[in-house]
Amino acid sequence: MATARSTQMPASEAVRGRMRRQREEELLVWPDLVFVEFICAVVFTIMLVILSVLVNAVLLDQANPAVTPNPSKAPWYFLNLQELLLHMHPALAGVVVPTIALIALGAIPYFDNDHEGQGEWLSTPRAWPNVIVGAVVGVFGTLALIFFDASRHVDFYEWMLNGPHRVPTLPDGAPDPTYIHWPEALNWLRSLRSLQTQVAWPAWSTNVPFSEFIPAQLIGITDFEVHLNLPAILVEQIIPTTTMVGLPLLLSLVAAKVGLAKTRRDHMILQFSGFIATYVILTIIGTYFRGQGLVLTPYTIFSIE
Amino acid sequence: MAVTERPERHSLGDRLYDAIFSNRVWRSIFRSGYPNTPRNQMLAVATNVFLHLHPTRIHRTHVKITHTFCLGGLSFFLFLGLTISGVLLMFYYVPSVDRAYTDVLALQTDVRFGQLMRNMHRWMAHGMVLTVLMHMMRVFYTGAYKPPREFNWVVGVVLLVLTLLLSFTGYLLPWDQLAIWAITVGTNMVGSAPILGEPNRFVLVGGFQVGQNALIRFYTLHVIGLPLMAAIFMTVHFWRIRRDGGLAKPL
User: Fold this and answer.
1) How far, in Å, CA of A133 to CA of A255, rounded?
2) Which residue of A has its CA nearest to B145?
3) Weakly modelled stretches of chain A, pLDDT under 70
4) Domain residue ranges of chain B, discontinuous segments joined by +
């Protein structure tokens, strides 16, 4: 029996199995940590000096409120929000989404509050698959939505059917009758906005006298006048909200169904990775792929001149 | 015959070492010599005003660079660097729409190392946004927000917001086309909020468009208001790390 055991477990393994005392696992802060910090600070000081010698900070012409540059962009860390602004109502993109995102971020530990997986990188089972799935879904899902709103699927369809070198006009400028266009019956699918503009909405739906339904005097508020544009609300608020809430929920549901995410930590890793991926992609698109008029095209700040 | 004890012969290096590190001036600053026993090394940390934010001992996995990538420490380091370079920049900068831009131009061309100072401040500011974001990711993926550290995560989220606001308020100060329009776009986002948006934007900008009032508001927030708040929250953040038992350990 003893020999069988020793073949299963080498001696070194048996020694390692002993619980280490707390003290043995600890190092002294001086010198082990203080020196790492010091070296880190020195290395980064040198790197920052080198960077600052090589690359100058941008300084454009003096501020002129009369001349609006095209495009005008927020600082890079807010370009994700500016990117959202292109796809939904400004109040939603500029205020509601960031507020809810920050509150949700702060609420993570109150939702995922077991002690599993602390103090080590992605140590719970299924952690890495959840990171990868969350990030991949975040990146490609966001890209797909952006491409849809920029009508890239229309371009792709026409490009596939006409070949890469065809243009919709003849050399003399007249439209080419043999050029195949996106089917007119699907014009409402050209982008999110075309759902509002390409559908024959009844006249009443764009001008609903909302304030008439509210008995302002009865509930003691001043009389007000608000007319609702239902197609605009659908396109600017309902569909974006449904997308931003629904797709992450769907992801978690599917992940739970296929056994990818079982614990709260799994779901948190999945959602957080998706959030970070979306944040990064939106920032990259907003920074490098929004040119004049904020259309989807490669762009750098240095082309402003 | 009595054997008299001969004094030990010291090498030049020894005497030089003694001259530097054992004289009265040095000893008045650093009361003990180099701490070369575990007890003295712990005392060196515990009794030093700058080092005593640290515990005296630390779990061995937390010293590995790949555990934290020094990201929290780097954020703090960048904050200190930004404070120093920012104070230097304040010597040359007047927050007035008539002077701000020319002051920055003069800083770049007339002031010795002025361009370098401005570059350092700019790159450290961008760097701090990055390190704070990456620090948040590190804390998340190492599960270091779990009980009892929930509240420190919330403090961290507040610090992330303060970092973004610090960077955003600084963005206006050069008073060039990039600055004014970036702030216009950014504050218009605030203004789009339902009901409270427009009044908030008005308070932030101090008017209907970004001008002198906005510049002085952003300047004041940038150089005193937000750094003070960040310093207070950082104090709580670091204090809670110690109170919650240091960095999170595997169970």
Assistant:
1) 9
2) A109
3) 1-24, 301-305
4) 67-243
Tell me: ipTM over 0.95: no
Q: Determine the topology of domain B67-243 in CATH.
A: Cytochrome Bc1 Complex; Chain C (1.20.810)
Asked if B146's CB is within 8 angstroms of A113's CB, the reply is yes
Give the span between the Cα atoms of A77 and A56, in whole angstroms: 20
Phi and psi, residue A296, nearest 5°: -75, 100
- Kindly state the DSSP code that residue B197 receives in the 8-state scheme: H
Instruction: Report whether pLDDT(B243) > 60.
Output: yes
**Sign for the pseudo-dihedral over CA of B119, B122, B126, B129:** positive
Strands B57-59 and A208-209: unpaired
Please give the mean pLDDT across all residues of chain B: 92
Query: Which of B62, B80, B119, B173 is the mutation pick for testing A, counting most A CBs within 10 A?
Result: B119
Cis status, amide bond into A31, omega within 30 of 0? yes
The answer to whether the CB atoms of A75 and B248 lie below 8 A apart is no
A38-42, B20-24, B244-248: which is most confident:
A38-42
When pLDDT is cut at 50, 70 and 90, the band that residue B196 belongs to is confident
> What pLDDT is stored for residue A111 in this prediction?
93
How many CB pairs lie under 8 A apart between chains A and B? Answer: 236
Query: Which has the minimum average pLDDT: A241-250, B28-37, B133-142, B158-167?
Result: B28-37
Q: Give residues with Cβ within 8 angstroms of B148, minimum separation 6.
A: B244, B245
| Cβ–Cβ gap B123/A27 under 8 Å | no
What confidence score (pLDDT) does residue A5 get? 47
Rg for chain A (alpha carbons), in Å? 28
Determine the Cα–Cα distance for residues A9 and B207; give it in Å rounded to an integer.
76
pLDDT value of position A2 = 45
pTM: 0.90
